[in-house]
Amino acid sequence: MLYIQDIDLTPNPNALKFIVNDFLLLREKRSFADKSEAANDPLAKAIFDLDGVASVFYTDKFITVEKEVNGNWNSIQKNLTLLIKSFDKDSIPPEKEINQPADDLETPTFKKIKSIVDRRIRPALEGDGGGLDLLDFHENILKIRYIGACGSCPSSIRGTLVAIENLLKREINPDIKVVSAI
User: Which range, of 52-56, 93-97, 99-103, 160-164, averages the lowest pLDDT?
Assistant: First the structure.
């Protein structure tokens, strides 16, 4: 039986990270910005059916739920706990092959960026219930998209973005710029 083991606060005041007792996914990360995006995912769809849910992000052993501005955490937590206990984990759609970046992204510099992001940035963001996707790298400009709790967090838009850029400037190239896709 699936159940919530713990609930963590995130830097995003409108998001909580719910840690579950078993793996939901092994390698994929699934992010849904609204109910229509979750139509083909039974877990995300069921979470969106709870009153006050604004977005859903889940991966291996956690689910991050962002509430609507007027959403009620007490109601969401109670109903999510009941949902998870009765949810059939086998109804989660099978994982797809992880998309490889386009050939033009597979430059030596992009490979270094990806390695640093995978080793040093993603684990920190996942610890806070979020993550990021690398979208494009061209002329020393890295375009990223925040997901999960990071998607609408005020600190990701300013502080985290600057921290990522500074790390990549120090480790790879002082001319790198990091921009967030909105």
Answer: 99-103
Instruction: Give 6-73 as a 3 state SS string.
Output: EEEECCCCCEEEEEECCCCCCCCCEEECCHHHHCCCHHHHHHHCCCCEEEEEECCCEEEEEECCCCCH
More confident residue, 91 or 149: 91
Angle (CA) 173-176-123 rounded to 5° is: 90
Instruction: Measure the CA–CA gap between 58 and 20, rounded to whole angstroms.
Output: 10
Q: Exposure of 114 by Cβ count < 10 A (0-12 exposed, 13-18 middle, 19+ buried)? A: middle
Q: Which domains does the chain have, with CATH numbers?
A: 4-91 (3.30.1370.70), 103-180 (3.30.300.130)
Distance CA 84, CA 174 (A): 46
Instruction: State the pTM of this model.
Output: 0.82
The three-class DSSP label of residue 2 is: coil
